[in-house]
């Protein structure tokens, strides 16, 4: 048996090309990287840092902490199939203790049978307004381009002006959502 005849692995290996440092507006150095299975405990702590307002803006409802950190849910999020979805996390290490924490998450979910994806960004309240949401979205858009997708889109609540500004800064087009309770933004790649 020759090794060059082995089938291609079903699961894409960890995408190291998306791991890199970045400096926030306050000068703090962080790492932005794809999520990993061992991030589940860090994701629990991340969700504990979110205000009700941030949760509502991301999930369009008051999703309880217990539902957000349920093992089954986080299992699906942390064990990514990088061919279908990509979640990038912003990670910092406490300078005194070395303890790692997740500060933000950006997601790209490919839409089944279309060459498009939906994107979303969620930043811990403590780290909002430091450029992190903008940087995560920039990187998620780059992943979409690397994957040769034709369009990315997102749904935003009308009250979430900060995310609307970020999307518009990248050239996203805006249209009313189908039910008029949200705004649909899209970017042709």
Q: Would you kindly provide a written description of the structure presented here, covering whatever features stand out?
A:
The chain is an alpha+beta fold and 189 residues long. The chain has helices spanning 40-48, 52-59, 65-68, 71-78, 132-146, 161-169; strands spanning 20-23, 29-34, 85-93, 100-110, 116-123, 151-156, 173-176, 183-188. The chain has a single domain (15-153), classed as 3-Layer(aba) Sandwich (Aminopeptidase), CATH 3.40.630. Strands 1-2-3-4-5-6-8-7 form an 8-stranded mixed β-sheet, sandwiched between helices. It is globular, with a radius of gyration of 17 Å. The mean pLDDT is 90.
Note the topology:
Blueprint: E1 20-23, E2 29-34, H1 40-48, H2 52-59, H3 65-68, H4 71-78, E3 85-93, E4 100-110, E5 116-123, H5 132-146, E6 151-156, H6 161-169, E7 173-176, E8 183-188
Parallel strand pairs: 5-6
Antiparallel strand pairs: 1-2, 2-3, 3-4, 4-5, 6-8, 7-8
Q: What do we call the CATH homologous superfamily?
A: Gcn5-related N-acetyltransferase (GNAT)
Low-pLDDT parts are: none
Structural class: alpha+beta
Number of strands: 8
- Secondary-structure element series: EEHHHHEEEHEHEE
The CATH architecture classification is: 3-Layer(aba) Sandwich
Q: Which fold name fills CATH's third level, the topology?
A: Aminopeptidase
| Overall domain count | 1
What's the pLDDT, averaged over the residues?
A: 90
Cα(first) to Cα(last) distance is: 43 Å
What strand line-up does the widest sheet have? 1-2-3-4-5-6-8-7
Helical residue percent band: 25-40%
Number of helices: 6
Give the class-level CATH name. Answer: Alpha Beta
Strand content: 25-35%
Largest sheet: 8 strands, mixed
Shape: globular
Give me the Rg, rounded: 17 Å
